[in-house]
Amino acid sequence: MEPPVTYYDKAEYIETTVIQTECVVRGDLRRTGGGHAVVVAIGRYCMLGQRSVIRPPYKTYKGIFSYYPMKIGDHVVIGEDTIVEAATIGNYVHIGKNCVIGRFAVIKDCCRILDNTVIPPNSVVPSFSVYGGNPDELPECTQEVYEAQTKEFYYEKFLPKVTPS
Fold it and tell me: How far is CA 65 from CA 46, 57, 109, 121, in A?
């Protein structure tokens, strides 16, 4: 679904990323002690949908509760009412409406996450993938599938001729 045309006053906006109304970006949450000063890094030409929540992932390590950096790449669309706690979102990613992206998830480049999808915490979504629904775990990586298929061909079905001696 294409977003409608919106006219804006150039003096009121930075022309690289669009953060729509009621979107919450929790850039104020950062690690205790030393560490990265930038907690949420957002690339160019991104669009963060209405009522979406972008907050850095967190965990307790050695008894200390801490937030970790989140990086969102260039040309990323995050749909309305979506909650994102990923560690990394690559370039050219489209995340649909009403999605939940779990803590420390990694979404690689050129992916599409369909509407109403839940990506479990600590998951890795490989490049050029399309995911939808609420999986307990993500299917195996396309790269790993192709690698296994080609190795099977080379080692089991592409054999040298046996010459009689």
Answer: 30, 11, 30, 17
